[in-house]
Design goal:
Layout (H helix, E strand, L loop, with lengths): L13 H7 L3 E2 L10 E2 L1 H20 L3 E2 L5 E3 H7 L1 H5 L7 E3 L2 E5 L4 H9 L10 E10 L15 E11 L4 H19 L5 E6 L10 H17 L5 E4 L8 E7 L5 E10 L1 H5 L4 E2 L5 E2 L2 E6 L4 H12 L12 E5 L5 H13 L4 E3 L7 H7 L5 E5 L1 H6 L1 E6 L6 E4 H13 L10
Parallel strand pairs: 3-7, 9-10, 16-17, 16-18
Antiparallel strand pairs: 1-2, 4-6, 5-6, 7-8, 8-15, 9-11, 11-12, 12-15, 13-14, 18-19, 19-20
Helix pairs in contact: 1-9, 6-7
Length: about 425
Amino acid sequence: MLASRPEETTVHDHRRLGRELGLFDTDPLIGAGLPYWLPDGALVRHTLEEYVREAERAAGYRHVYSPVLGKRELYEISGHWAHYSDDMFPPMELGSEQVVLRPSLCPHHALLYRSRSHSYRELPYRMAELGGMYRSELSGVLGGLTRVRAIHLNDAHIFCTPDQAVEEARAALALIARAYADLGIRAARHRLSLPGGGGKYVADPALWERATALLREVLDASGTAYEAVEGEAAFYGPKIDVQIADPAGRETTLSTVQIDFHQPERFDLHYTGPDGARHRPVMVHRSIIGSVERAVAHLLEEHGGAFPVWLAPVQLVVLPVGEDQEERAYDVVRRAGGLGLRAEVAGCGEGSLGARIRRARLVPYQAVLGAREAADGLLAVRLRDGRRPGALPVQEVLRRVAERAARRGTALWDPA
């Protein structure tokens, strides 16, 4: 049986929902922690990815692609090999070289920045990628989409002057807040993640103090309440973690913002200042939705499979009452497709009208098409939340649904 109505407070498991809704699954021959995406899941993922790319383009980011492999030397320079190798896959021998699956995109982006000279006039230089990375997670901690070995991260790195770092990080927090509103998810809290004890972290007290002070300024400037927690920083610097909680109260990190002085130094990054001299940029790391896998898992559990209209695999289902209305139902679906909507017919061969309505209860819009509606060019509209706007002209229904989907957000229906 599918998930209950979205307004109920049922605790949902994204693994069960993902399989029941035909979104994703795993196979032992592919391997643990390596989920595959079925057509409806791929559609959700693609829509989410395009949303992020569109938001980034509008905010001045330029998109790149970089390889998922890198030489071991690259990660020795970045510090990953010394501080993070336990979470990396073993090197592969290619002749006299060793290459590894990357655990992070930032070393590649540092090299992309370094490949060209830059003037202060170009900064901030915002580089974004939705790229693959790999973590050698132990089999005992793998689960669904939340802990996987192949991760597709919505990542970006902003190369800027020290004076620009606070505003760039603050703007990244604003992008995250807007995305959460459009996706219908809530931040449980904001965490300033600081280093703890032991040799896990880069040993440079001045670096940590400077980056921490700037992140506190970012949080204060944005009016964001936060908690400082030791032992949760990245190995190279502190970060702002946007924490989310599933319906069972389990908390995890989805989005992050970091100010990094370490990797610009390690990779000897520069820009030419107004004085004609070379200066060191600051590297701001940020991720709007974190990994696509974790984002979809949280959306499933937050909404119980009832995705916001713009993300739903099927946005409109047309339900003919009798076989005489089926041809008209398929015509409505064709018209919906012409407007960019994802629509399907649930025909009479799929059971009684009541049974078809129940099966489609996670679809945002149900349109019943009986003899009277067909004769008058109408659709009897039912919303997923139980509201019934009534019988409206076909074109009016399609227009409203298309406009609602284009505006994103979580609302289902607007006043006339």
